[in-house]
Amino acid sequence: MKKNIWLIAAIILVITFATLQAVNTAAQRADKGEGKSLDAEALEKIVNHADSGQITRSSGVKAPPFTLKSLDDSYVSIGGKNAKPIVLNFWASWCDACSVEALELRKLYEQYKDRIDFYGINVTTEEKPENINAFITKNNLQYPVLLDEHKHAADLYELHALPTMFLIDKDGYIIDTFHIVDPLELEEKIGRLAKR
Asked: Alpha-carbon distance 155 to 148, whole Å?
């Protein structure tokens, strides 16, 4: 009987400790802004700002922070201030439009890699590693590729289509978001980002 009481007490303590840890982790994420996704109003504000063509002003919409594993098993955190502006390109290996855009993005990466940080984000939970690697090889991607294995970043950024790109200034504000655009427009948008 005493053993059962001690066992029940130990189980209660473990459950209490686990609950406190979960609450503490959630509070820390809230303090960092993690978990706060973009909403329709924020996305509209970003698009309106980008359409205005104003380079000096920010959209006022902070990029939601996240951390993802890269292909080399290191972790990369996005969000907050950065030494350079950032291009986030969300893609999947089965997406034909993603391949078309990847070719143009590769050229722009070569041109602007000293002034802009580029990240490819694979967002499909069902992707096989060999398909991801084949896409990277086929498109000769040289910038880091992050794996959004649980669609955490995709959910934070309210992704509804692929490919989707987000342009983020040095202060961590999203200045533009779009799906596939023609090569000249993409070059113009990346060129404006490089001036920030």
From this structure: 10
Span 143-157, pLDDT tens digits: 999 999 999 999 999
For residue 64, say if its preceding peptide bond is cis, omega within 30 degrees of 0: no
Sign of CA dihedral 150, 71, 76, 121: negative
**pLDDT tens by residue, 134-186:** 999 999 999 999 999 999 999 999 998 999 999 999 999 999 999 989 999 99
- Residues near 166 by beta carbon (within 8 Å), at least 6 away in sequence: 63, 86, 87, 88, 90, 157, 174, 176, 177
In sequence order, the 6+-apart residues with CB closer than 8 A to the CB of 145 are: 70, 71, 119, 120, 121, 122, 132, 136
Mean of all residue pLDDT scores within the chain: 82
Q: Is 170 helix (H, G, I), strand (E, B) or coil?
A: coil
Q: Residue 107: how many CB atoms within 10 A of its CB?
A: 13
Alpha-carbon distance 89 to 84, whole Å?
A: 16
Instruction: Note the pLDDT tens digit of each residue in 34-70.
Output: 457 776 666 666 666 566 565 545 668 999 999 999 9
- Dihedral sign computed on CA atoms, order 105, 110, 116, 122: positive
